[in-house]
Structure formats: C-alpha cells, structure tokens
Structures
1.
Amino acid sequence: MSRIEAARAILAANDRGGYTVPTDRLYPFQWNWDSAFVAMGWVTFDAERAWREIERLLEGQWQDGLVPQIVFHAPSDDYFPGPDIWGVTHKPPTSGIPQPPVLATAVRFVLERHGAAGVERARAIYPRLVLNHLWWQRARDPEATGLAATLHPWETGMDNSPAWDAALERVPTKTRTEIRRRDTGHIDPAFRPRGIEYQRFVHLVDLFRETGWNARRMLDISPFKVADVGTNAILLRAERDLLALAEQFGSTAERAAISERIARKEIVLAGLWDDALGHYLSRDLIGGNLIPVRTSAGFLPIFAGLHERARELAARLEGWRARNIALVPSTDPDAASFEPQRYWRGPVWAVVNWMIARGLREAGEEATAASVSADTRRLVGEAGFSEYFNPMDRAGIGGETFSWTAAIDLLLGEGEGR
Ligand code: GLC
C-alpha cells in the first residue's frame, strides 16, 4: 500500500458514519479540532465526505453558538468522562467546553479545494460559523478586550502543557465525580497526563456542570482562567478566514463586525510577546502575568498573520533542528518542565506543525517552513501515523492510526503547508 493509500485507509477505518473518531477505542467520539483538520484531509480525495465531517460536528452546536469539544454521537465505555458526567442536555450529547476554533479555517480550505461545487454547502454552514464566533466574544470576552479566556486546559487542546501548571495549582483536587480513567488502560501512563492533573480537570467539570453550563457564571467563578496564546492565535486566523467567507456569503454589517474584531485582536495578540524569553506567551488572567514557558503554541501568532517576529521564531526552530531535535517540540527542550514523552509536555504533534509551517510560509520564512514540513513527514514516515512523537529519539507515541496525523500527512504530501 502506498503512503497516500495508507493515510486514506486510516480515515476510512476511523469513519463512524460521516464523522471520524481520532482513533479507535482511546477516543471513540467526534472531537472538535480533530475534525476540522480531518475535513482538510478528507477534501484531498473526497470532498463530499469533508463536508459531512463538518456538518456532523455542527450537529453538536449549541443554540448559543458553542461548538463543543466532543460530540457523543454514539455510546461507548472506552472514554472518561462520558456524557453522564458532563450532564449536558443537548441532543446529541456533547461536552460543555470548546476547543481551538479551527473550523472556519477548515471550511474556507475545503471550499477552496472543492470550488463551485461546494458553494451551497458552505453557504449553509456560514451562519453557524458566525454564531460560533459571536459565542467566543459573548461567552469568553464579554468586555471585548480582544483576548478570549480559556477556563479548562482541555479547551486548549494541549491538556497538560506546562504552561498550565501554575494556574492549575489554584484548582482543588477534590472531585464529586469518581475518576475512572480509561486512557491509561489503552496507553502507558508515562505518556499521559498525571493523576493529579486529572483530578483538577474533573474538579473543573464538576464546577461548571453545577452552574448548569451557564457561560457567564463559568467565567465568573472558574479558578482556572488564562488567555491561551494558541487558542487566541487560532481564533484570529479563523476570523480572517470567516471574513473571506463573509465576502461571499455575509452582509456588510457582518463584515464590519468581523473586521473590527480582527483589528482589535491583532493588537492584543502582539501584546503576548515577551522580550525576555523572545517568544509569544499565554497570560494568566487571574494572576495577570505572562506565563514564562515557551511552548509550540507560542509560534502560532505567525499562523494568525503576525509576521513581525517570524524571523526570530524561525531562528529558534533552526537552532533546535541543528541540535537534531525534531520540530516542533510542544515544550522548549531547554525548559525544566520539558518531558519528551509526556503528551503536551514535549512531544511533537503533526497538526501544530502544519499550522506553524503554513504561518512561516506565509511570512516568507520558506526554508524553516520546509524544515517543519520535512520533519513532520519524516516522523510519520519512520514511526507511522502516531498520535504524537518524541522529538529526541523520534519514536511514535500514544495512540496509533491517528486520524489527524493521517490528514496532515495527506496535506503535506501534496505540498500544503510547505
Ligand atoms: C487529546 C488532545 C486533544 C485532542 C484529543 C483527541 O485530548 O489533547 O488535543 O483533540 O485528544 O485527539
């Protein structure tokens, strides 16, 4: 089987009827940002299926506009916490928090690939994206500062990043829900978040559920509140892609509102730059400080269209590469908190690489963009379609036959992102 056929076969095998699970058993439902990347993978060979992926994700959208992190289309005992613990009344059941909003970027991408044949699908989806971006503003930035708040590490998609360590300390470890992890039955616990982090993750779920998933209350009471540089960069990028869609499908008033948000976000995202570390950082919204750890999320403002620091950030990547560290480690390999095998504390993730490479290419940093793409292709070529990769010995870790890794490999194989 060729490499392209192998990647396509993974998407087909993980297809559960119009939606793609991240991988069998470990993640048996539809995940938000996974599906956005997976739709971009599907469109390389099956545009109809790419649109279905997006439409099925939107079956989980709440009336207020939230596109949840997980849509529980069909029951499964393989994952904790399941729908009963979230206690959300939506049909189909969902979790109650967002994930990085890659969706508008994916819709624009799929439409551009599909061309005129995709216009009616995109037109029907467009208002749902508008509603979702309004949710980000209303629920997570009611004072219109331009920076969206994150209330749970799972919302960042980078669950146990060391960037969250200090802010998580404020979250009690007591839970009302009994913790019955399933992930460590599938995967070596050394490669997964620690138990104490899970207690805090579940404490937050308990707390939010008890507000009845009231967005305003959650924002007021959450002991964990950060402006994640990754989420905010992805959101700014998504606003630009939404604006492009609005040129075709939207009203003058919608375009004006989106443009205004973009202008504001460009300024505040630039404000997450830290001179001392020479990196974009997340901000702790309770302590008020920038969080002093370099992570792969700190490269994403380039993907958001902020190009003024691209040269400096590209040089950092080239420095790591010169030391034979595979790009892009999720945590700075020189940081005390770096753990090359443990999930978001060191390993390389293909989707993050795709965004970084695309941003670098758009910023004119072609050579480094090509390095990031080439490293990603090499990791997958040597280790397979793993969930993530050890940047030091290049081993594949976590789940296997992973959908978003296959999707990114299809895109990079075609030169997308280089
Ligand atoms: C993990 C990852 C998250 C991803 C999910 C499904 O929770 O941290 O980013 O969306 O798995 O693959």
Note: The longest helix spans residues 119-140.
2.
Amino acid sequence: MSSIKSVSTESRVFEPPAEFAAKAKIGSREAYDKLYAQSIEDPDAFWAERAEELHWFTKPTTISQWDPPFAKWFLGGTTNLAYNCLDRHVLAGNGDRTALIFEGEPGDTRTLTYAELLAEVCKLSNGLLDSGVKKGDRVIIYMGMVPEAAIAMLACARIGAIHSVIFGGFAAEAVRDRVLDAGATTILTQDGAWRRGKVVPLKAQVDQACESCPGVVRTIVLRRTNNDITMKEGRDLEWAAVLDGASAEHEAPALDAEHPLFILYTSGTTGKPKGVLHTTGGYMVYAHTTTKYVFDMRPDDVYWCTADVGWVTGHSYIVYGPLANGTQVLMYEGAPNHPGPDRFWEMIAKHKVTIFYTAPTAIRAFIKWGDEHVTKHDLSSLRLLGTVGEPINPEAWIWYRDMIGGGRCPIVDTWWQTETGGIMMTPIPGAVAAKPGSCTLPFFGISPKVLRDDGTEADTNEGGYLVIDKPWPAMMRTIWGDDQRFKETYFSRFEGKYFTGDGARYDEDGYFWVMGRVDDVVNVAGHRLGTAELESCLVAHEAVAEAAVVARPDELKGQALVAFVTLKSSAKPSPELNAALSEQVAREIGKFARPDSIRFADALPKTRSGKIMRRLLRELAAGQTPTGDVTTLEDISVLASLRSDES
Ligand code: ATP
Ligand code: MG
C-alpha cells in the first residue's frame, strides 16, 4: 500500500564525453558535487551570488522568506526581466549579436539582433501603454510561434502587465475559460497561424470566446496568414496600427521582485488546468541559472527548443532563459512533418543548430516515421540534446543519442513542471554521467525526496511520492485567485512540503527515476507499479514506437493490466506480435506483470503538449465513456477510434 515497486532493469551508464566536458562550464562530477553542496548548505548565499549576474535597479535586502506554502525571493529588490534579456546585452556592446532566428512553416525566415529585438519590444511596450494597458493588467497572448509572440511576452514583462500565453492549438472554449479565470482585459492574437500548410484561424476563436468574456476591452491583431477576419469596431486594433508611430525607446521600469510575471495554465494531463502564478525576480534568476548550466549555454550557440510558447518550456527555455543568457534562439512556426517528416533535421543542418531540446512524444514520432528521414541530413553541428515532458523510455533515449546525437552529444533529461518554473532534476552535461530513463540528480538548490504514504523517507530503489522539501526561487507562488486550492493541491499531502504528483525512486547512486504520476500507478498481484517502467519494457521491443499501460477493475485479480501499443510504421499488428510483447514483459519484469490485454492503436490520446492521457485510457479500458475534462485532448477522434477497436 505504501510504496511503489520498481521493476526496471536498466543499467547502462554514459559518462560525459571528454571533449564536451573539457569545454563545459561545469566539467567534472567533483565540481557539480561541490557547488550542489554549497547550494544546499547555504541556499541564500548561493542564490544571492546567482542574482548578482543580473541587473537590479535596487539590490534585494532579503534573499528568501519561507512561510509554507508561501515563498518570497529577493525581497526589497527591483528589476526588470525584459531589461535583463535585452537592454543588458545591448548596453554591454552586444546589440549586433543575433537574438532570434525565425523560420516560418512556409519557409520564410527572419533574423533579429538583440538591438532589433529590443527596439521591437520597446515599440510594443509603448503601443500597449498608449492603448491603455496598465501594470498588473492580465494580457492573454494567443498566438502561433512567430517572433511577435516572444516580443509580446517581453513587452508585457517590461511594463509589468501579467501575461498568460494560451497555446494556439486550443479552441474558443479553452480560451474563454482561461480569459475568465485570469480576468484578462486584453488579448494579443493574430489572424491565423500556419499549421501543416493550413491556416489555424486564431482571431475567429477569439471572437467566439469574447462573446462570453465582457471583461476583454481590446484585442490587438497581427496579420500573418492574411485570411479574412472581422474586426470589431472599438475593441479590435491592428498590430501594425498599435506600433505605428510608437517610439523604439522605452525606459524599463523597476519592478518589485515579487511583482507577478505570468499566469500559465498547466497542460491538463490529470484534469482541470491550474493557473500557475510566477513572479519576476525568483523566476528570472532561476531561468537564467538553469539555462546557463543545464544547456552549458554560450552566445555563439544556435539553440533550438521545439516546445510551443504556450507551455512553460516555451517560457523558460525559448524566451526568458536563453535570451537572458544572450544566445541565438531558433524559433520554428510549424509542424515537424511539414512538408515532410525530415523538416526538423533539414532545419538543424541549415541553421547549424548546436543545442536541440525536444519532448519524448516527438522522439517517439521520429522513431515511428523511420531513420531514413534523419540519416539524409548532416547533424554534425549538434553538441547537446535535451528532453522534457514525460519519462523517456530508455530505448527512445538510446535512439536519440545514436541517431540524432551521433553518439557524441550528451543528453539532458530534464524533469520539471509548470509549477516549478524551471528545470529541477537533470544531468549537468559536462559533469554527471547519464543513465537512459533517469533524470539523474537535482539542480543546484533543489532538494527532492521520495516519501512513503506515511511521510517517512523511502529506501534506495523503493518507489514513492516525489516531493521537494525546500523552497527554490522559481517555485509557483499560488494558483491564480485560489490560495486554498494551491494549499490543497500541493502542500496538504505532506505538511509543508511541495508534492509534485509524480512517483519516483532513487537508485544506489542517488539517481532519480520518475515512475509516472501517482494517479496512474497500477496494482498488479499486490504490487503497486509505476506506468513508466512497464511501458518502457514494451517500447524496448523493436516493433513498438509507443505504449501506455493502465489498469481496469477485474473481479478476480482486483486490477487487470491493459496495454495500448502504437507500432513503428515498419511493423504490423498480429497475434504473434501480441504474444511476443506479452512474453517480453514476462521475461523482463515477471509473469505477474503480463498484460491481460494488449491493444494495438494508431495513436494514443494526448494533451496538446503531447503527453499521454492515461486517465482517459483507464476509462476506456474499463468500458466506460470518458467523463472528465477532455478539452485539453489533442485529437478527440483518437478516443472514438480506440473505443471502437475492442479486442
Ligand atoms: P496537469 O498538472 O494539468 O495534469 P501536466 O502535469 O501535464 O498537467 P506540466 O506542468 O506541463 O503539466 O507537466 C509536468 C509533468 O510532466 C511532471 O509532473 C511529470 O509528470 C512530467 N515530466 C516532465 N518532464 C519529465 C521528465 N524529464 N521525466 C519524467 N517526467 C517528466
Ligand atoms: Mg502537473
């Protein structure tokens, strides 16, 4: 009852490549250990030093204040995140360096230097202020992946308006819910966004959402796809008109360290999304520090994170962290398989990308599409790879390392959440040896623990509840407008400790292995098992691209295991394959874990951010119609096809 049993047999270890380590900011395990020890023994001293690397109009007087569940960081300090991402570099004489390299889905490109990006952000800041947006107002950014989305975020951050980016793949209903919850007055959007050669009509969704959002007094509309839109007199403004005549100079105001920076809704894997609030100073220092060390980032890197700005990864690791570090950020507008399944590899070769950060769901899709799309491009510019979003199956990790990284690039498997603001566990690439499927060790200042049901600490290799027992600068401050839900969701399970909702264990080397969400834990023959290890066992079979394991009620056994499996495009479902997969689980894990049913599926239900929604599969496996929130589901038709394909 109290713990989660680990059945993983993964034992491969990959040391940091010597050539990488030799040039890295942190180039040895000793250096990591030393800095980590300092960061835990005296976190205030550690973070004060990190804060010194950024500009403050007034220096903080108190580094941290912890009144569980409420944290404050850099009290008394005033700063400006946009200033630190832009003005600071320009003032240091680096205005001519490339900040953003944009590639549109149709193939158009645009490059902005730091000076140019600063000018654009200043213009929009002035334009927003002139149109009546004030400090503290909530501004929705519902856009595609275009430079203006980043410019909009930076302009809001600059003037102290609280942005809430809504993923452009969401429809009117999801926009409405978030607008209402945030109490937003302003929406920044575009006529449409390109996706797989088609126009996603964003403005039309905004119009529909606004029918039930009387609080929205203005929208500002960028023209991107030139599809027909209707502009509502008195409410809708053209982006170009707002910028017209706006000065390219704007003095960044000094904002309090705890001034709210953004609200971001979680991706909704487990249910109704939560409006996570982040504030200025702590988030800024943490995004800057994690980017610097986790990606070993330098100004001459060409860094590409394939997330959308609608997710926290897009906030911390497309916009704020990389720009604060003064690097060159590649931003891509469209789908990974448009016009062909090799678009990403073509872009890496073309832009000479050095750091590539993507999600396991994307990696599994690449595997499914076939190696031939990768091998025809020159990926030798890459020096570092990263993943985020889900536990990565060890076989997918190995494929990523060999096929994309040419066996030469370290991989940083970064565990974190919308709530944590930045990367919490990860190998430091020049210092910490990687194990496929493990996010390895905590980042500086982070104190993760694995607890049993009763709150005592789990032993080595005993799975339990993953908590963080000390505050860190970028931790969420609350759920927007709902302190009570904040307390209940994160701090009531284990008094005074932040509960992540994930299950994990640490191994004999102190490495952390995230075993999936505790809500998804399955109970087989009296063993509580995390889904990640069972799924990884299936994915290790050469025919399998992706797998999701859930339990359904069973009269005899209590729970029976159902595995949903997606095959590589080279493989076909068959009774023999079914038997072989069952055999693989029996051999690798044990007969008790043999799935009671294996269902082949063309696709699995996922959130818009690409995470498997086991909650829905559980209901399907039990023969029920999914009941909970399905608005965050990426493709509703996947549910219907899974339902009709009973086997
Ligand atoms: P919701 O909280 O609304 O259900 P969500 O948890 O999917 O949505 P995010 O904050 O985007 O929203 O995702 C964080 C979660 O993603 C983590 O709690 C964890 O389950 C998973 N995750 C992220 N990175 C990793 C990783 N490297 N390894 C394992 N799991 C990861
Ligand atoms: Mg979550």
Note: The chain has three domains: 18-80+261-517, 82-87+114-253, 521-641.
